[in-house]
Amino acid sequence: MNVPFLDLQTHHAHLRTEFHCALDEILDSSDFSGGTAIHRFEADFANYCGTRNTVGVGSGTDALWLALLGCGVGPGDEVITVPMTFIATVEAIHLCGARTVFVDIDPQTYTINPTQIEARITSRTKAIVPVHLFGQPAKIDAILEIAKHHDLHVIEDAAQAHGAEYHGKKVGTFGTAGCFSFYPTKNLGALGEGGAVVTNNDELANRIRILANHGQTSKNHHASIGWNSRLDAIQAAFLSLKLKRLDMENQRRRENASIYHDHLSRLDGITRPFSAPNQLHAQHIYAVHAEDRTGLIEQFNKSKIGYGIHYPIPAHLQKPYWPLGYREGDFPISESCAAHLLSLPVHPCLSHDQIGHVVETITRFSNKGKTERSFEYQPTCP
Ligand SMILES: *Cc1c(COP(=O)(O)O)cnc(C)c1O
């Protein structure tokens, strides 16, 4: 048996005809940039998130960069975020000319540890960028309280958390702005690149829209130096179609995760991820902490199981950020995650047999010759 880490072919098979129709519509209208498909998706996504505005942009990286720029973050400013994230979070801060100040992650949730934030705030701090890593909502209440007390913006990196909820409210809608990526492998992925900023602040939405369109306030009038980062109309049309299936797919991801959770308990050298109560996890990634990750990977390769490593080198140890002056040992939780986390296939198209194969492989690896426990999956829903 083969268990791919992702299976976008199967994932998209259900929508093939609808994708073709959507493409035909755009070919007929020739609205390739702007137009109905963009307005429709922006309205759909704002409605889905429960926010006043969605501004479609070119990528998740651009969403973060433009949101920070729109909040006035620039040279001389500091922005607080975590080293355990995809590099784009940090890139966006530096593209604004600001400096990153890192805070380690919480050992349970792998999201920013709010108890360590306040010690890093200075007179130059402008914003906190919590990352809802792997689809798990960050500890928003505590973060918002600190931000309010110090008059800071909270820009949520929700690139891995479309549809995740914190106490019944969608992530991305708590801070000044929320940033999403529609990179193909994300929970809501385009058939190409895309991103969006969501915000309840109309003025900020307008500023970002202008920045993403050459600083143009009306035809041929450019109020600021902007950039070209508009969401592609064809992608917007595809995204509106895929959005309808997002909740169902996230639910499948959670079901897959809960099967892993039930069957990977009490295994030597394997620690399951924590999922906080009262929250809806988007389960973009399901990563186990493996004492011997190299050994487990070897076993996965032999058993034809795909995997991911998110992320093998934390941002503070990546070369472009060496000048920030951080060293190995500065962020022990992030560094331990970088060395030991292994992401298992959790995508919505996995079959029970495939999940069983992963569970059996990990169990056999962990038991090393001791009696094998066999995988017996009991379906929970009819
Ligand atoms: C994917 C991702 C991004 C960047 O999104 P792109 O669309 O690839 O630019 C930013 N932050 C995190 C946490 C991500 O996972």
| Strand-pairing-aware structural class | alpha/beta
Strand order of the largest sheet: 1-9-8-5-4-2-3
- Kindly provide the radius of gyration, computed on alpha-carbon positions and rounded to a whole number of angstroms: 21 Å
Mean pLDDT: 95
List low-pLDDT spans. none
Shape descriptor: globular
Termini distance?
A: 25 Å
Number of strands: 15
Structural features, described:
The protein has 382 residues and is of the alpha/beta class. 37% of the residues lie in helices and 14% in strands. It contains 11 helices and 15 strands. The strands form 4 sheets. Strands 1-9-8-5-4-2-3 form a 7-stranded mixed beta sheet, with helices on both faces. A 3-stranded antiparallel beta sheet has the order 7-6-13, with no helix packed on it. Strand 10 and strand 11 form a beta hairpin. Helix 2 packs antiparallel against helix 8, helix 3 runs parallel beside helix 8 and helix 9 packs across helix 11. The longest helix has 31 residues. The chain binds pyridoxal-5'-phosphate. The site of pyridoxal-5'-phosphate has 14 residues, from helix 4 and helix 5.
